[in-house]
Each structure stands twice: as C-alpha cells, then as structure tokens.
Amino acid sequence: MPRKMVDILGNPKFRLDDRYRLEPLPRSNEVASGLTARVHDPAWALTRQWQFGEFAGQDAGSPVLVELSGHSTAISAWRPAGRTGELAVDRSWVPYDPKSGPLDGMVESEDIAAPDELTRIEGGAHFLRMLDEKGLRARTPDVLAAYGFEHPPTGPSNLVTILAPKVPDAERLVADFTDGAPGVAGLGSVPADWLTWWRGLFPAEAPDTFDPHRFEHRVDMSFGDKVFHSEEYLGDGLDWFTVDLDPTATPAPTTPAAVHMFTREAIPSTVRYGGIPADRFWEMEDAQIDLGSTDVEKLDTGRLLLIAFAEVYGNDRFLLPLEVPAGSLTVLDKLVVSDSFGGKHEITRAGTENEGWNLFTVTGTDDGLLVMPSERGAVGEPLETVALLRDELANLAWAVEKSFTDLQGDRVDRRERWLRIAPESPPPRDIGSYAVQTIVPDYWLPLVPHAVTLDQIRFALVPLQQPGFTSEPHGRLLHTDDWVHEEEVPRDGALVTRRPVLARWFDGSWHSWVRRQKNPGSGEGSSGLHFDIVRPSEPWP
C-alpha cells in the first residue's frame, strides 16, 4: 500500500514506496462489459462528433452495381524493327494469333541456322520413339542404315557419343522428309508427324529481332489501327510498359473480327491490401505492415500520400473484375455506377483534364489497357554468359565470354578451361625480365574503339593475337569482326545471357525457346594488359 503523508499545510498526499505498487481492483470477474465499449453518454459522443465535423459529409452512397461497355482490339501481326543502315532485316508483317502461343517465344527466340549435335541426337531418339508407338520397331535397322550419322561425334564418353551410333541423325531426317517421299518404305505416317513436331521446335519463318550491335530486341506490334514499337526490349518479358505508340508506322491489314465489343454488369468489391485499417472495432490488425510507424519528414510527399491513401481513403477504393482476352488493347467507352441511394453516375477516365497524367496506359495513347500475349515461363540455367565491361587501365572495353555451350550440349566454363592451359609465368631473374605485353586470358575479347564521326565512336570486336593462341568467341552471342555501340558498354557494364525457357500457354500447350536477355553488369574490370614492361625480381616497395 502507498504511504499516506501530509504536506506543510496538512493536505494529505501519497508517495509510492519501492516496495509497493498501485493495482486496479475490479468489482467483478467478467470482461464482457469492457469488451462491449459502451457509451454511457450518447449525447456527449454526438456533440464531440459534431465539433470535429464528422456530420459534414457528402451523404454519398456505396456502389452496388457497375455497368460498363467497351471494345478490345486483338493483336494481328508483329515484325522486327531494326534501325535503318545497321541491320538488314525484313520489315514485312508476320501474322500472329494468340492461340498459337506466347509472343515472347517468337520475339526472344534466336535464329538457329543449324542444330547442335545434342539436338540432332534428341530428334533422332524421338523419331525412334514414334516408330515404337506405331508398332514399327522392326524398321529401326533400316532407318539407322539410311539416316545414321555420317561422321559420329567423338570425344569423351557422354550422352552424345554413346547414343550417336544408336539413333538416326535428325538433320538427315529433315532433309529427306522435306524433299518428298522417305527413302525407307513402310514408315507410315511417322515421317510427317515427326516433321511437324520438329518444325514446331525450330520455326523456319520466324525472323530474328535481336540487334547484335546493342544486344537488345526491337519489335513492332500491330493492334488494329495502332502500331506499338519497342525500341530497347531487354528480353525480360513483354509487358505494356515495354512499348510506345508509333504514330508514323503503317499497321498491318486487319479484319473487323479483330475488334471485340463487350457490355458487362458487375458488383464491385472493396480493395483489400496489407496494412489497411480493420473494419471491426476489436479486430486485431496485421502487425507485419504498420504504416503508422513510418518514419517521414516534412518533405516526404510520396510517403505521406501513400499513408493517406492507405489509412484515410483506403475504404473509398473498389475493385471491379473484367476479363479481357490475351494480346489485346482494351478501351472502356462508358462506365456507369449505381449507388445505394438509387443514383447513377457516369465515371470518366482519371486524368482526362490533365494530359500529363497517365497511369497504366501506353505512352502516346489517351486510353486503353494493353495486355500482352506474354508468358515468362520457367527459366533454366544460362547456356551462355557474356560480360561487357570497361578497362580504364588498358584504355579498352572487353567482351568477356564467361561460359558457352558446345556442340554436344555441355556447358563450358572458359575461365576454368583457361586455368588448365594458361602459360606459366617466366621464372624470376635477378635483373628482372622484359615482356612486350602481358598475357590476357583467351576468353577476354577486346572491343577496340573506332571513330565513326568526329563526335561518335563504336567498339569493334577483334581477335587478340598472343604467343601460342588467339582469343576468339566460341558461343552464339559474339561474332568476330562485329561491332557494338559505345553507349551499350557503360561504366556499370552489362551482362548478356542465353537461357532456355519452358512455358505453358492458356490452352495447355507447352512452348520452349532460348531467351537472349540483357541485364546490368557489376562494374568495371581489369584485364591486366600492359605493354613494354619489366617484371622486377622483387616486388615494388
């Protein structure tokens, strides 16, 4: 208990002693009265609400029904969009139907001139599998005699060298089945079915959108009377923000069926998100997102707007589901909301009176939601990796081919292979040793600057001649005597990869391709290249 004391005037007062504490003494053991949060003076509560302006509302009703109408314009064609004078590309439109598969597989896929040995093995094994399914296994010896590998792959024992004598060569199968009747009789419909499967893996008519001078994709897409252009698509998944409207381009011919008109009625629902205030008085809110504890300053306008939207106006946002077709540009022509008071309100697009404000709309258009026929799919390990970086000490830029995939489908780490074949340094001498230049690893390919104009240069990929070996590319991304724009090799560098992708489309079909993607690099590097040097026998002090 606290001690009772009196001051100099005799008034009682209390002082807490370290050995005691004050505790409430409830009159009953039940908690229902406290949880109900009763208001014992309703008139006082109403007065306080009036003082704080809570009764000065707009008497707005809640939306109960939404009627909307609009139209969706489907994509009809696409084409490469290489720059004039840099790439000799075919600018003719390629018809496209979203039912045929994701557009990513056509835009990102590389142009394979000839399949590697592993792919030829897999194609031959699939042909034998189809023969077995048709009950034609007895024709296997004749098939191997007619379509076997003329020059079987050699090298260490692996999947390719083991299966090469046991399966036909897919490249020879394609050449024979395409010309006409198969050279082996009694195969039934297997050659035609297998050729259809093979062409599905390697579409011959698909043009290449990849720009080897920038390591980026350029593509045009036709949606009705509009053409959307992607200038610097990095290969990381097509979306509405990867394209802009090209008002000068001529769209591909379309049919009236490409435009789909629709009318919908739906019931809106409130928007729910993490951190929104709870609806009920005693409902416990999620402690993982606490917007009230955000550290803000007076000039943090963005954070203040976010908190105000979430805490104050969060219950004013409603969600209206609308299903639109894949690969379409959808525009809402009219949207009417019916509220709980029976009133109807026509809602216009946000930002109509402000041309500089536009949200989720393609740059250059006034309205519309662009839904790309895209599927990023499951991405595998890199088949090839090339790093573009600058070397200030050597006054050069470099294309570092870190890894590539050989003809037998094996991933080769070029640094690891270089460490096995790198020449040994000269033995130390008392008077030092002279060298014309230092040895650079063979997977470092120099990008030599060449002047194009007085204010423009570009990097040319040239082989590096060194005693005993020559640095040259072995993959598909780099080519000897090619060149790269200077701005594509920034100080931060760039990382270009080839990755296999497997995606499943909305009809359940599977689609696979090899994606070429460009990502930011990890900064500058040093090749250690020096000319006319003397290595001292002892390190420099």
Overview of the molecule:
This protein has ten helices and 27 strands. With 541 residues, it is of the alpha+beta class. The protein is 17% helix and 29% strand. The radius of gyration is 35 Å and the shape is extended. The chain has helices at residues 32-36, 42-51, 104-107, 117-133, 140-147, 159-163, 170-179, 190-201, 301-311, 414-421; strands spanning 3-6, 12-15, 63-80, 94-95, 210-211, 216-223, 226-233, 244-245, 259-266, 269-270, 318-319, 328-339, 344-346, 369-371, 378-379, 384-391, 396-405, 411-413, 433-437, 444-453, 456-461, 464-466, 469-471, 483-485, 494-504, 510-520, 531-535. Helix 4 (117-133) runs antiparallel to helix 8 and helix 7 crosses helix 8. A hairpin with a 5-residue loop joins strand 17 and strand 18 (411-413).
Give the gist of this structure.
The chain has 541 residues and is an alpha+beta fold. Helices cover 17% and strands 29% of the residues. The radius of gyration is 35 Å and the shape is extended.
